[in-house]
Amino acid sequence: MVSLEAKDRLSNQEAVLGALLIEDKLIGPVLSKVSDRDFLDDVYRQIFQAIRAQFVSGKPVDPVTVRDRLGGGEDWSKLLLQIMDDVPTAANIWEYVPRMQEQARFAQARGIVLEMHEARDMEEILRGSEKIQALAVERQDVRRMNMEQMLHSFWNRHTTPHQYMTWGLSKLDEQLFVDLGDMLVLGGYPSAGKTALAVAFAYHQSEAKRVGFYSLETSRYKLADRLIANMAGIEMAAIKRGALTEQEWTQAANASQDILQHQLELIDASGMTASDIRADALANRYQVVYVDYLQIVEPETRKANRTEQVSAISRTFQQMAHGNGILVVALSQLTRSEKTRDESKYIEPTMSDLRESGQIEQDADAILLLYLEDPSRPNESRRVLKLAKNKDGERGRMYLTFDGAYQRFRQSVVEQAAPQTAPMKRPRQYKQVSFADRFWEGIYDDGPNDPFRPTEKDQTGGADGQAKPE
């Protein structure tokens, strides 16, 4: 006996197919929104495939041609005629299409839940959860616009200025047009300070967004120590020793009021795969996700080589960003090539130095590279933050000062750009340049009245919005 639920499923599938057989003008629009997996019944799926094949080949679509495409026979003829008899009009097809698709997704989700019920470990359950989340956000329709719609959309979207994600560094905010749904990569050599910078970025953004910081290398407690040092102005050395003075405890208490206003969660992610992180982020409704760092995310399979593993991890994070509308900031190690090991012939890093996979460079919407201004002096605080890839804006570099005692980055002014190679000095440039070019390339007039010279405020603003304690 067929249940009422099953009859309803069949009737919706019949209604869609019957409408296509009655009115062939509907086939094109329906094909742009419907796929094979929307038909749960195997027989109806075959009929849909035959209708699509006829349409794509430019041949007429009617019960006779579809029957022949299916291989002919009396049974197919009876079924096709029965479908047309059961559907008196094609006018209501757009009522049936979404109902059919919803029923298909529900049936698929229920099948996944049954598989999860038989799961042997947490990994299988997490994978099932990710599949269900993917079904929930699945988009079948192809979205398009004509030129009239494009102009209408343009005027509506740009009536008021769009607020992109901010980072707590004013010069970076001016140049980097990154939003929810994008993937940004922050690359750096070991000990360059990329984790400290990422934590500062995450804390700044968590004032307005839900942010999850997945750390695969540093425990959440150590990240918390860095945040307290930054926000409360307490030296890391004092925190590490566990011997805070009464004044430092007071500073921590005062900072707590601001800290509690931020929606930042620190997650120990050691051993998690990219799929695990995606499922957890969706379950916790994070709008921004940080991953520290990409190369030590657990691979989904051990059978692939290392390049293939890292490429798969990168693609998963890109799909997470674009498919789920989440800003993903993935930290990445840079490869030290032979030329960069010789500090006398230092060459600044490029996107191709992202370790173990060129796929990272392809997947990212924007790439930031953080490195020492002078690698021969590793104890110096100056850093270069290079905007190496910026799909919707200009590329360039800015200069930072890192105060390790308080885990703070501040914008800094330098007299010249970071060297391309030590033996070659960058020649003085005499040309007209824009404001952005002057800032990013570090080109300033010698006179103190140069309007493009950064102000005192520019020199003191930091990722945390605070001045360095004296």
Describe the protein:
With 470 residues, the chain is an alpha/beta fold. The protein has two domains: 4-136, DNAb Helicase, Chain A, CATH 1.10.860.10; 170-460, P-loop containing nucleotide triphosphate hydrolases (Rossmann fold, 3-Layer(aba) Sandwich). A hairpin with a 5-residue loop joins strand 7 (382-390) and strand 8 (396-403). It has a nine-stranded mixed beta sheet with strand order 3-2-4-5-1-6-7-8-9. The chain has helices at residues 4-22, 27-31, 42-56, 63-69, 74-86, 93-117, 122-136, 147-157, 170-175, 194-205, 220-232, 236-241, 246-259, 274-283, 306-324, 338-341, 359-363, 435-441, 456-460, and strands spanning 183-188, 211-215, 264-268, 288-292, 327-333, 366-372, 382-390, 396-403, 408-411. Helix 1 crosses helix 5 and helix 7 (122-136) packs across helix 14 (274-283). The chain has 19 helices and nine strands. The chain is elongated, with a radius of gyration of 29 Å.
In short:
The chain is an alpha/beta fold and 470 residues long. The chain has helices at residues 4-22, 27-31, 42-56, 63-69, 74-86, 93-117, 122-136, 147-157, 170-175, 194-205, 220-232, 236-241, 246-259, 274-283, 306-324, 338-341, 359-363, 435-441, 456-460; strands at residues 183-188, 211-215, 264-268, 288-292, 327-333, 366-372, 382-390, 396-403, 408-411. Residues 414-470 have low confidence and may be disordered.
Q: By helix and strand content, what is the structural category? A: alpha/beta
Count of beta strands = 9
Q: What is the mean pLDDT?
A: 78
Number of domains: 2
Q: Quick one: CATH superfamily of the largest domain? A: P-loop containing nucleotide triphosphate hydrolases
Number of H/I helices:
19
Q: From the 3D coordinates, which CATH architecture of the largest domain would you assign?
A: 3-Layer(aba) Sandwich
Q: Indicate the overall shape.
A: elongated
For the largest beta sheet, what order do the strands appear in spatially? 3-2-4-5-1-6-7-8-9
Q: What's the oligomerization state?
A: single chain
Order of helices and strands: HHHHHHHHHEHEHHHEHEHEHHEEEEHH
User: What's the CATH class label of the largest domain?
Assistant: Alpha Beta
Q: N-to-C terminal Cα separation, in Å? A: 82 Å
Q: What is the CATH T-level topology of the largest domain?
A: Rossmann fold
What proportion of the residues form beta strands (DSSP E)?
5-15%
Q: Radius of gyration in whole Å, from Cα?
A: 29 Å
